[in-house]
Design a protein that fits this description.
single chain, alpha+beta, Herpes Virus-1, Methylamine Dehydrogenase, Chain H, 2 domains, four-stranded antiparallel beta sheet, 5 helices
């Protein structure tokens, strides 16, 4: 007679049930006690009720268990079994808490190790400076001293900028609390989203050889696209016109960023350079060279004057657009302990929290690092993605983070509880792009040759848009009433809600 194993106790069960949320098998008595206390699936923390459990039938010829009475040996055995089940539940919970404590301890050790390295480096620099000062001849005070700061990865933000970030964070947090829980009246409704249809497409924005649109950003009805042809294109959807085409990168474009006023663009490339452009000007305004690998992602800070960049060499930087200067550059291979694999800290994605005080950066090692930009330290780590984190998006509500991975998973994180509350298997191909609408009602994903839109409360799939090749980007238009997708098939497709 075959029996199934309970996922909590690790013992065979005569009364097996399955969780519809995870597919895991449990003993009915044990999982019922667990749900009465915690209300969640033990394996993935999804909300679960006892009436949702699915009974499993092993064999029609299994004899019924003896029913104990209050004065028999079976009654004593039943009592002991109840005690054992309670112990199993708490043992399982303690194991989970132990794992979480180990992660927190690991993070603390990372910070301690980094602090010790910084102290040792500063002591060495102080000793070197004293030795140099002792042998230095007196210098004419009228002469200027040239200071090079662009390449120092241990630079900190000045107090004026930190104060500006704090002020902006407070302003945005207050505004978010005041906005209410209901989406604006102009935002697309669920029924409307289901009717979204193709309005137009353009496959002539980029060259046919080499073919493919590799990245996308959108503000209003303007899009910025980067291509395998090494070009960056600013396109006006309303008038169906190319506003500007920018040429300067030596390899294909990997990321683009369009500023809100749609006059300034920023692009990153496989040539490891970042360039800023102005509409109507063929030449780049600034070339940033702080990275040594592919610039995998760019994001604009809420201040509107600074941006984040991350690259495949494990470096992230924070730069001033107006001054054309890199303010902070961090090499994670120097900051964190030596990884188990060579490319574990290679960044595949990087985004700034809507409040502006935190950075979220996904790595090839499957860990998302939350970085406090003011304290210059790791604030939290989100592991267990199973493969490289290729795309990230923060919800405008401030406490949800979506992550897309190279193995086709969409994982949702709660920044308040520091845990994952939803995992979807989209495809067995890379999730190249994830994006929320401006209110956080919908989530758009690009995985394989499909782009999809989900309703976050119900997690129903509302719309699916297909391309002939890998979808590389998806963005919402104003009030989520339109969607733009791009693909390696060279097409930019524009979907809207049809008029009633």
């Amino acid at each position: 007679m075959s029996q199934l194993i309970c996922s909590i106790s690790g013992q065979p069960t005569d009364n097996p049930v399955a969780s519809p949320k995870s597919g895991a098998v449990f003993d009915r008595a044990i999982i019922t006690k667990y749900l009465e206390e915690f209300g969640r699936d033990p394996t993935n923390e999804a909300e679960l009720r006892a009436d949702e459990l699915i009974p499993l039938v092993l064999n029609n010829h299994i004899s019924e268990t003896l029913r104990p009475n209050t004065t028999s040996i079976p009654a004593l055995l039943k009592s002991l079994q109840n005690e054992w089940e309670v112990n199993m539940i708490y043992t399982y919970r303690i194991r989970r808490e132990l794992q979480r404590a180990r992660q927190e301890l690991s993070h603390s050790l990372y910070r301690n190790d980094a602090a010790l390295r910084t102290i040792a480096r500063l002591n060495q620099q102080l000793t070197t400076a004293r030795a140099a000062l002792a042998g230095m001849q007196r210098v004419d005070p009228s002469m200027d001293m040239e200071i090079s700061t662009g390449g120092d990865e241990d630079l900190s933000l000045d107090k004026e900028l930190i104060d500006a970030i704090d002020e902006k964070t407070g302003e945005l947090t207050t505004k978010r609390r005041q906005r209410g829980k209901e989406a604006p009246e102009d935002d697309a409704k669920v029924d409307e989203m289901k009717r979204m249809d193709l309005k137009m497409e353009n496959k002539n924005l980029h060259d046919s050889t080499p073919a493919g649109i590799t990245c996308l950003d959108m503000k209003g009805t303007f899009t910025a696209t980067g291509g395998a042809d090494k070009k960056v294109v600013l396109y006006n959807i309303d008038s169906d016109t190319v506003e500007s085409t920018f040429v300067g990168h030596r390899k294909k474009i990997s990321s683009v960023l369009l500023l809100p006023e749609t006059e300034i663009l920023i692009s990153g490339s496989h040539d490891s350079h970042i360039r800023t452009w102005r509409k109507g000007n063929e030449n780049s305004l600034t070339v940033f060279k702080q990275h040594h690998g592919v610039v995998t992602d760019l994001d604009l800070h809420p201040l509107g004057t600074h941006f984040l960049s991350v690259s495949g060499d494990g470096i992230w930087s924070f730069s001033d657009i107006v001054k054309g200067k890199t303010l902070v550059k961090k090499d994670m291979y120097s900051f964190l302990p030596a990884p188990e694999t060579d490319n574990a800290y290679a960044f595949g994605s990087g985004k700034i929290h809507p409040d502006g005080s935190l950075l979220g950066m996904g790595t090839a090692g499957g860990i998302i690092y939350m970085w406090d930009i003011r304290e210059q330290s790791v604030a939290a780590e989100f592991p267990e993605h199973g493969s490289q984190v290729l795309s990230l998006a923060f919800s405008e509500n401030g406490y949800h983070l979506a992550a897309g991975t190279a193995n086709g998973l969409l994982k949702m994180w709660d920044l308040r509880k520091l845990n994952s509350f939803k995992t979807l298997e989209l495809t067995n191909q890379e999730v190249r792009s994830v994006n929320f609408d401006n209110f956080g009602t919908y989530l758009a994903t690009a995985a394989g040759t499909s782009a999809r839109i989900f309703h976050l409360k119900s997690w129903n799939e509302l719309a699916t848009f297909e391309h002939d090749d890998i979808v590389t980007g998806i963005q919402f238009g104003n009030h989520a009433r339109s969607v733009v997708t791009t693909s390696l098939d060279r097409k930019l497709r524009y979907f809207t809600i049809p008029s009633s």
